[in-house]
Amino acid sequence: MNLKKVYRLYCEEGLAVRRQRGRKRALGTRAPLQKACRPNQIWVLDFVSDVLQSGRRFRVFNVEDQLTREGACRRSRHLAAGPARGAGAGCDHGRARQA
Q1: What average pLDDT does range 82-96 have in this prediction?
Q2: Which candidate, 35, 98, 90, 39, places its Cα nearest to that of 64?
């Protein structure tokens, strides 16, 4: 049914038609993203998903250092069912790495 017909039927029944509000838009200009000057300064978080040949979908959560692109953590999960499986019990966020 189109909106005009719905509106007419609602008016005949004495109901209030709920109007959908427009999408919020960003206001102003955005600040440029910072660039890392040294390792361990800025971390990049990313989700990557794919489908296996068997048709099973999976997603990988990556945590990387922005400057060196060294991966700190990768956790994968099959989207069908089951607990999260990963490259370890957790990410080593607090590791001490000096450059």
Answers
A1: 49
A2: 39
| Phi/psi at 85 (5° precision) | -120, 145
Given its phi and psi angles, is residue 5 left (phi above 0), alpha (psi -120 to 50 degrees) or beta?
A: alpha
What is the distance between the alpha carbons of residues 85 and 94, in angstroms, rounded to a whole number?
21
- 8 A C-beta contact, residue 36 and residue 65: yes
Mean pLDDT of the chain: 78
Is residue 38 within 8 Å of 61, Cβ to Cβ? Answer: no
Q: Residues 28-50: pLDDT tens digits?
A: 888 888 888 999 899 989 888 88
What is the per-residue pLDDT for 37?
92
**18 Cβ neighbours under 8 A, 6+ residues apart:** none
**What does the alpha-carbon distance between residue 36 and residue 54 come to, in Å, rounded to a whole number?**
40
What is d(CA 2, CA 24) in angstroms, rounded to the nearest whole number?
24
